[in-house]
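To the wet lab folks,

You asked to see what we're planning to order before we commit. Fair enough. Below is the target structure as tokens, and below that is the sequence we designed to fit it. If anything looks off to you, flag it before the synthesis order goes out.
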């Protein structure tokens, strides 16, 4: 089936896999006729959507994988299933979930332009749009579900958890989602175990932290071009002008990984006690001090697994796979043919070769 990774560990449900593949095929047909330069979509949304359309088979394959694990082993029929597309971006996963026939699809994103863009794109594609578009973080999502008496069955995301500012609080709040049995599927290409990916992301993080980045066309409005450490120095010196240059530099180094309000709180604590906060344990993970958006954070996956386990989830870490469709680049197809069986055979050790990892967590209803 074109939209499922070959030789991969997939749910043991052939009907579900076939249904998702057919839904992906139908959505592909609808998306193939769309003009990516939609006039009312933000510049960032237009670029994001254009990138996904140019790699649409890869996009749909990723989302098919996520959707299959989100629905598998649930006794809930499609038309009664409540699915949350968390960090939905321009909303392609939501469209695929509706194309499959899921009864209630809730799109959720923290950035207002994307939330608006996703609705415009859904109308332009002439596909069934999500039933609800929720702007905000986990708190707003929980409030929305409770206010509307909605009980969800699954929450899923791709390339979102490496950007969440306070991942510990996010994970701890997941059990607050009104739900019976709840499945959480969060995939990320920021795979710490793959040495090539790790090296690439560390280089990116160092540039963001010390060198700054050029703002290219289609970047989000909150994209920060200045080196993060320089921005933190500015925040600190403006908040506490009495500090010496040496103290400002020390505090800027120690507050890597903090957003502006938390930086100021750390400075206030230093002024009272002279205690400098402890730097993050990872040597290069860094965050935009204004938005809290991490620069492709390389997570300690076992730490995330422990948090979810303590919240009552049964957690597995699944290794991701490469596509080996005939439409793919020959090298990528070769990697799929050769590496996918190896990744599956090695199980958790297959993360060394995997292009992404997936946190697959299930919690029984109370």
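Sequence we intend to order:
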């Amino acid at each position: 089936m074109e939209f499922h990774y070959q030789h991969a560990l997939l749910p043991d449900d052939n009907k579900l896999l076939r249904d998702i593949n057919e839904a992906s095929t139908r959505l592909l047909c609808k998306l193939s006729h769309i003009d990516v330069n939609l006039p009312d979509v933000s510049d960032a949304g237009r670029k994001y959507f254009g990138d996904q359309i140019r790699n649409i088979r890869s996009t749909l394959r990723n989302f098919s994988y996520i959707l299959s694990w989100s629905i598998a082993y649930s006794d809930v029929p499609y038309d009664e299933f409540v699915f949350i597309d968390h960090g939905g971006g321009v909303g392609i996963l939501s469209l695929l979930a509706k194309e499959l026939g899921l009864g209630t699809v809730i799109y959720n994103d923290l950035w207002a332009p994307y939330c608006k863009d996703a609705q415009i794109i859904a109308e332009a594609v002439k596909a069934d749009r999500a039933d609800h578009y929720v702007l905000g973080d986990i708190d707003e999502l929980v409030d929305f579900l409770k206010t509307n008496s909605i009980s969800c069955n699954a929450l899923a995301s791709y390339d979102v958890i490496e950007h969440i500012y306070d991942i510990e609080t996010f994970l701890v709040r997941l059990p607050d989602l009104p739900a019976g049995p709840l499945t959480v599927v969060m995939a990320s290409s920021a795979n710490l175990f793959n040495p090539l990916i790790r090296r690439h992301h560390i280089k990116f993080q160092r540039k963001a932290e010390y060198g700054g980045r050029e703002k290219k066309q289609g970047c989000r409005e909150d994209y920060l071009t200045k080196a993060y450490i320089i921005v933190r120095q500015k925040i600190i010196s403006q908040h506490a002008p009495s500090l010496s240059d040496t103290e400002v530099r020390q505090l800027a180094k120690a507050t890597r990984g903090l957003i502006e309000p938390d930086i100021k709180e750390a400075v206030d604590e230093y002024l009272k006690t002279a205690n400098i906060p402890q730097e993050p344990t990872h040597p290069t993970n860094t965050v935009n001090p204004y938005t809290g958006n991490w620069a492709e954070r390389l997570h300690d996956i076992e730490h995330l697994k422990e948090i979810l386990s303590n919240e009552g989830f049964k957690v597995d870490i699944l290794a991701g796979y490469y596509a080996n469709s005939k439409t793919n680049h020959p090298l990528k197809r070769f990697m799929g043919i050769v590496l996918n069986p190896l990744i599956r055979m090695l199980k958790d050790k297959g993360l060394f070769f995997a292009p992404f990892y997936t946190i697959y967590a299930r919690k029984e209803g109370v």
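Structural context that might help your review: The two ends are 37 Å apart (CA to CA). The beta strands are 82-86, 104-109, 132-135, 152-158, 179-188, 314-319, 357-363.

Thanks,
Computational group
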